[in-house]
Here is the input.
Amino acid sequence: MTRDPFEQQLAALARTQPRCDPTPAWKCEILTYAKSRAQIRPPRWMTYPLAAAWLVVLILEISRPALPNQSASRAPLPVTPWLLASRQTLQTELNLP
Amino acid sequence: MTHRDLEHLYDAHAAGLFHYLHGFTRSETDAKDLLQDVFVKVAAYQGNEVVRQPKAFLFRVAHNLAIDWLRRQRSRTNADQQLALEPCDPHHTEGDPDQKAWASSVAAALTALPDEQRSVVELRLWEGFTFEQIAHAQGIPLNTAASRYRYALEKLRTRLRPIYEELQ
Here is the structure.
């Protein structure tokens, strides 16, 4: 694309006239900060194995056969003697049947 | 990305990125903050684009950050406050007073352009981008990039005509 003289004058300005550049003085500060922020994030490659592991755990949990129910004629839970005595005392005091 | 790669990118493109961002922020402090954000994103980036087209990638990141910054600023400040920001005259011209006047006039004229036009001129003339690269960096169609450049050039031509003709 050919440029007209005005555009060429602008382009010459861009080429020949230096602009103030404070960036070299900031280089260490900016790059140190950038690297420290980048290290906080875990690498992306770890997310796929972790996600796959969680998926396997979920599938195993869902597909695990249910435990068989316990027998209906299960022996009653043992009751401690002091509990029985406490209950009898309470019934007496409250005149419960 | 290694620290050396990041250093090379910084050495090659930080100055251009800073001026591009300064064009949006009109503040050296804010431009520096955005420049830092650019390199935070680049340091964390794990794709291949930064290797294949580093300059285009960097300026695309910078452009997106600048647009986000503008949106935040416009919701906070009014136009009067924006005028109080630092004037943008980044050229250091020494010696020839005519060139110095021309450079200052161009800087002032660029500042007066709308951001979408000024940024295209910046990328085209100062960074040597093709219109295709500009379209990619700014996320706009190729024709839009070319149109914005033409409109910007016409506005600059009108505003700078007196000094331009005087220099001829």
Notes: Helices of chain A lie at 5-16, 23-40, 47-63, 81-93.
